[in-house]
């Protein structure tokens, strides 16, 4: 078990700065997920922790040891690669025990460790097979077993599920969560898929263009995004956002300047009665996705296109609908995308305001 | 199914089959046929002698010398070319201007005709005025006789063959090395694998298809060495560089003992055939890990 600390990390590839002044603390025993669009520097960050990439500046600490100059093998870190990176010339057993052999673990101990691990991940019948004769899910398990058998302080997983089909991915997701519970080791996990991040992580680090946007628990990220990027990244579908200039019929009392307004698709009400108080948008349904328990509507209004999600409600058949968003569920962002939390009072604009204040 | 749809595939492969039969299959069988005759290419009568040509060949002292020359030449050329090329490839497997230049430079002999190379090296190896002896002289060593002495002639020819083959072999090795995904090396480094372990346990086995491909290609090529010998030594001095194909050529086209030459050709065919069979057996049983 270990805490990982990145202090003022920066990374340049030739003249290209990918990461600048990154500070991050990964808690001991946490399941931390780095998530962000491709090219945001999440994999690079991960590889620097593993030692596969040397940072251009800053320090990396694992527990109380600065590992800047520690080679990957001595950092007590195990990694699961996106393409598994299994050794094709070795059997499953050979793959799992290669790291142990290099550490000089005795044969009897090795055999016991390999046997235990292969039973945990369900590979016992395949120990003498070559990786290429295994299915994608089994290869994934070999990669996991190879990492686990070294009993590392930190597990690093670089998009490990992206090569699996949807069903297997869901299954492996729960297995990884269970595995983390069972081992209690620090997991650092990289993905571009926010659903994966939300479902697995107990700590999520949202990154964009080499900068950490927000590092928080999944619910905090969802309920209380720090900025427009996080708001638009998290959620299925993500938060609807509109430029304040395009918003009509909303009366806002505030001293700060608001750039954007947003709301979650699942918090908007379709054709609510007059008793519902909130911001009202009228629009036309463009598409309907019905997933059984929930429906997702794409609605085009004067202010732009947005999504509304309803649960266990009959499919809306009308073309034109009235969407009501309760005032307390509106999010506001400044001109630079930062979240505005206080000092904003919203209400419906009075149409008979002529000669008012 | 109409007659046309039935015949069409045969029509499509016919050109290839015809060319192959005419220039490969037919000559092979004709050579086997000729190996049982005594004939001088021009006389209207061929005398059937059965296996006499083979008996003569195997009894011939020169022929045994030729076989041993060919074997020594092949073993030396193949091991040196493949081994050196692997070392070179490991060194050249980086992307930089300098490495690219070296790679290009060592590859260039591959595209030069063997005749030019043979002439070039004949000059370089000239005992009196050659560049090699001049350099050796500068270094303070005794001059070598190179192609003019039975003890050094064959090795000199091996040197030329290695020089010519190195670039191509290294190129194939580099391609093989680059097909090994980078994350394998990374996984190995996380597994605390030492460079030597990574090389012997991972890289070498993953390169094994490449190694076997090159070994067999080089072997077949070396067994059929001809140009360098025809130009540089003509099999001499004292038969020390006479090899199988040159022997066949001499008997066929200089002494016009076509039956005898064909018998030697059949022996070459058998040797190359056996090598190829071994190659495919090994390839399917041992190195084919994918």
Automatic annotation (TrEMBL), chain A:
- In Gene Ontology terms, what is a biological process of this protein? carbohydrate transport
**Pfam families attached to this UniProt entry:** ABC_tran, TOBE_2
Q: Which residues form a coiled coil?
A: none
Q: What is this protein called?
A: ABC transporter ATP-binding protein
In alphabetical order, the GO MF annotations are: ABC-type transporter activity; ATP binding; ATP hydrolysis activity
Q: InterPro entries given for it?
A: AAA+_ATPase, ABC_transporter-like_ATP-bd, ABC_transporter-like_CS, ABC_transpr_MalK-like, ABC_transpr_MalK/UgpC-like, Mo/tungstate-bd_C_term_dom, P-loop_NTPase, Transp-assoc_OB_typ2
Family matches, as Gene3D superfamilies: 2.40.50.100, P-loop containing nucleotide triphosphate hydrolases (3.40.50.300)
Q: Which residues form the ABC transporter domain?
A: 4-234
Q: Name one GO cellular component term.
A: ATP-binding cassette (ABC) transporter complex, substrate-binding subunit-containing
Keywords noted in UniProt:
ATP-binding, Cell membrane, Membrane, Nucleotide-binding, Translocase, Transport
Superkingdom per UniProt: Bacteria
Q: Which SMART domains match?
A: AAA
TrEMBL record, chain B:
Asked if Glycoprotein is a keyword of the record, the answer is: no
Question: Which of UniProt's keywords are assigned here?
Answer: Cell membrane, Membrane, Transmembrane, Transmembrane helix, Transport
> How does the protein associate with the membrane?
Multi-pass membrane protein
Question: Transmembrane residues, as ranges?
Answer: 12-33, 72-92, 104-124, 202-226, 258-280
One GO biological process this protein is involved in is: transmembrane transport
Q: Which InterPro entries match?
A: ABC_transporter_permease (IPR051393), MetI-like (IPR000515), MetI-like_sf (IPR035906)
* Pfam families xref list: BPD_transp_1
The yes or no answer to whether the keyword Manganese is present is no
Cellular localisation: Cell membrane
Q: Where is the ABC transmembrane type-1 domain?
A: 67-279
Name used for this protein in its record: Sugar ABC transporter permease
